[in-house]
Design a protein that fits this description.
By secondary structure, this protein is α+β, with helices and mostly antiparallel strands. It is built from 8 helices and 15 strands.
């Protein structure tokens, strides 16, 4: 794809030089054409050398990335009662008396028999406490941004057991999963989780995923079922994989991220 683009550009450049250079002789024009074709041939030869050095994997990798970037998907729009975890984390929390008591430090995702929880930091640089979504209300301000209000007083929050993470990167927390490279099981390529769409009851609805190339240059993402994300077992070094078939991946909805 890239090679074709650059080769086509070189042809256009040659045509422009012939039309606009004002060359007085055929010899000048021929010299210009020869230089452009030589540069193009050199570029193509370099790519052929890459392909020879790295085998079919080099060609396949460029093809797969281009396919993911160009795929046409139905675009998903957040509905009422849904929010991005990136919009909630860092927001202030008020208690049942309307008093500010801290901020949302993270969102713990449901896993196994565990229910989703809000991880709240008590005051400035205070302790972390896990508050269930049944003990808090997620609401939206005038701009549609999510905020949290606990059904607990500040004293009740202080009495809760301190939240402690079970080691690093166990992927229970939204902040751990966000920014993680995840392996697509069907083609062994990596994509990146950039956000999570969660309902007000704390249930994660979609993981927002970028193919890496798209993330760097556009706001286009696609959505997958977060239940399909798992830590590989066996000989894996804790690698995170997405257990999707190629058909499921191709039918995933798109999502336009806010990258301002």
């Amino acid at each position: 794809m890239k090679r074709l683009f650059l080769t086509t550009s070189a042809v256009a450049l040659m045509m422009g030089v012939v039309a606009c250079s004002g060359a007085d002789t055929h010899t000048q024009t021929a010299e210009t054409d020869t230089t452009a074709m030589t540069e193009t041939a050199t570029y193509d030869r370099d790519y052929e050398n890459d392909d020879a050095a790295y085998g079919d994997a080099a060609v396949e990798d460029r093809t797969d990335n281009a396919r993911m970037a160009d795929m046409d998907r139905d675009d998903y729009v957040l509905t009422s009662g849904e929010f991005l975890t990136s919009d909630l984390i860092g927001e202030e929390v008020v208690d049942s008396n309307g008093e500010e008591v801290g901020e949302i430090e993270d969102v713990m995702l449901a896993s196994g028999g565990e229910q989703p929880m809000l991880i709240i930091r008590d005051g400035f640089a205070g302790e972390l406490h896990a508050v269930s979504f049944e003990q808090a209300t997620i609401w939206f301000d005038e701009e549609g941004e999510p905020a949290a209000r606990m059904d607990l007083t500040e004293e009740m929050l202080d009495d809760l057991q301190e939240f402690e993470q079970n080691g690093m990167n166990d992927y229970r927390l939204a902040s751990e999963l966000t920014g993680t490279n995840v392996n697509l099981a069907f083609n062994d390529k990596d994509v990146r989780v950039t956000d999570l769409i969660v309902r007000t009851d704390g249930q994660a609805k979609y993981a927002v995923v970028s193919d890496g190339i798209v993330e760097a240059v556009t706001d286009q993402r696609f959505l997958i079922d977060p239940a399909k994300i798992m830590v590989a077992q066996g000989d894996s070094d804790g690698e995170v994989v997405i257990d999707l078939t190629e058909q499921e991946f191709n039918s995933a909805m798109g999502f336009t991220a806010d990258i301002d």
